[in-house]
Design goal:
The complex is a heterodimer. By secondary structure, chain A is α/β, with parallel strands linked by helices. Chain A has 2 domains: 136 residues, Aconitase, domain 4, CATH 3.20.19; 30 residues, no CATH class. Chain A is 27% helix and 18% strand. Chain B has 2 domains: 258 residues, Aconitase, domain 3, CATH 3.30.499.10; 147 residues, Aconitase, domain 3 (2-Layer Sandwich), CATH 3.30.499. In chain B, strands 4-3-2-5-6 form a 5-stranded parallel β-sheet. Chain B has a 5-stranded parallel β-sheet with strand order 16-15-14-17-18. In chain B, strands 10-9-8-11 form a 4-stranded parallel β-sheet, covered by helices on one side. The chains are: A alpha/beta, B alpha/beta.
Amino acid sequence: MITGRAFKFGSGISTDQIIPGRFAYLRSNLPELAKHAMEDADPTFVSRVNEGDFIVAGSNFGLGSSREHAPLVIKMAGVRAVLAKSVARIFFRNAINLGLPVLLCDTDSINESDKLEIDLQEGTIRDITNDSRLTFAKIPGIMLQILNEGGLLPYLSKYGDFRLPSVR
Amino acid sequence: MSGTLAEKILSDKSGGEAGAGDIVIAQVDLVFVQDTTGPLTVRQFQAAGFKRPVSSIKAALFLDHAAPSPNRELADDHSFLRGFARQTGCFLFDVGDGVCHQIVAESLARPGDLILGTDSHTVTAGGLGAFACGMGSTDGAIALGLGKTWLRVPESISVILSGRFSPGVYAKDLIIYLIGRIGADGATYRSLEFGGDTVSVMSVPERLTVSNMAVEAGAKVGLFPADEMTRDYLATQGRVSDYRPLSPDQSALYEDTIEINVAELEPMVSKPHTVDNTAPARELRGTEIQQVVIGTCTNGRIDDLAVAAKIIQGKRRCPRTRLVVVPASRGVLQEAVAAGYIQTLLEAGAVILPPGCGPCLGLHQGVLGAGENCLSTANRNFKGRMGNPDAFIYLGSPATAAATALRGEIADPREFL
């Protein structure tokens, strides 16, 4: 069970807004890079977010670049999960590879700063602030295994190779 | 084996019958990284305990996004990647060689290949019939080390093209139109597969432009069949032996079919700040443009520079509008010099940048000022993309860009033919 506050964003938040290309010179200095997380979507984000909070977005979150630095700086900023109506393919894969859960659900009922309680195993989100409950889409088998191990590197260090789940 | 192009290639690479929705573990032919995603890829590769790329794959490093380096941090990243190439024997394409996607098309991609690049526009090589797919650094690192990756076999959307392009209308207008029609997430997780009688007369460079932007509709890949046009292109690159024909089966199942008569298309523009925010160029007349960019992995090929040079020949750019030209590769630049296009563009007042990504992603070489408008032949116009969240980016074809540079405001290139 994880608990935190919601930071709401709209639809179509691109990787250029999550971590702008102009900061590419900081990509070998990740602590400095992470200070610019979400900067072109909300310049105040990094100063307000706390360890354990959530990003709650509309549709097609993370579209654009393949830069893994996008989910990386979100994670480094303290975000524990990204909730969105839909998410761009490469961002989804990158986030799971870094052990950052991406939960697909109807985010309309969640408001800015709502306190959320998420049960990753049960697949449920409780909005404590407005006393409502949501479910999120099941994460596909192999991605769930990777997420459960904390990311692709720990997954491979455990299994040594890709393993297809026995039941699709 | 029967299926879509995606299913056929992934069946071949996974050694079984791969159908849409299946998860497969597939052998990879080529893994490549570029200078802004490469350092993290190499660090993840080393963190996973790998020493050198597995011998079953081709591995390539490209210094193209910030080339030559604009500052010491990126210079250090370049040194780091050069060192890795020296230690491991990866192909290294250094500053000035060109954009990774152009060089992959010219020199490395083969029909039927599975290609992973740590860059979203890896989809470009779909124009040659390669299942070419962008991934992040960790996925790239593991593919370098293991020679394989896991993939969900995508459902496919069939795009059937008929008719012939009208004068002044190009492949770029087609893909902008398509993205406007289906939306920036209209093909998310899908394979966009192009067919129909128009395809047989579309050159590989035109196909590369279309495939390049498949990701702007969310697609995993944008695939063309490999046919005589593909064979001709590979022959001009001196590698006809890399050719093999590839086409979808008649019985292939598609999730959706989209029919487009390209004869009905007109010059199209994506407006700020999303690629799917499209309009005909003629509706945007009067929009003042401070900078025009012709180049990038979308439209920096010799045919693109030829189209622009023909429109610009003997004229000068509008004094209020900077004209920035970025050939996609060293080979393109050399050809453009030999053909006189560079001279034409210089006489018109253009700035010629070294082959590479140029100002496309906002690192250097043409960052926009606050409130400025740019019309670019690139593939993305997101807020902040060209280095300034207070600037505005329009996307169009090389012809639209050239016409716009002459007029100083967005122009319909058909008035300049």
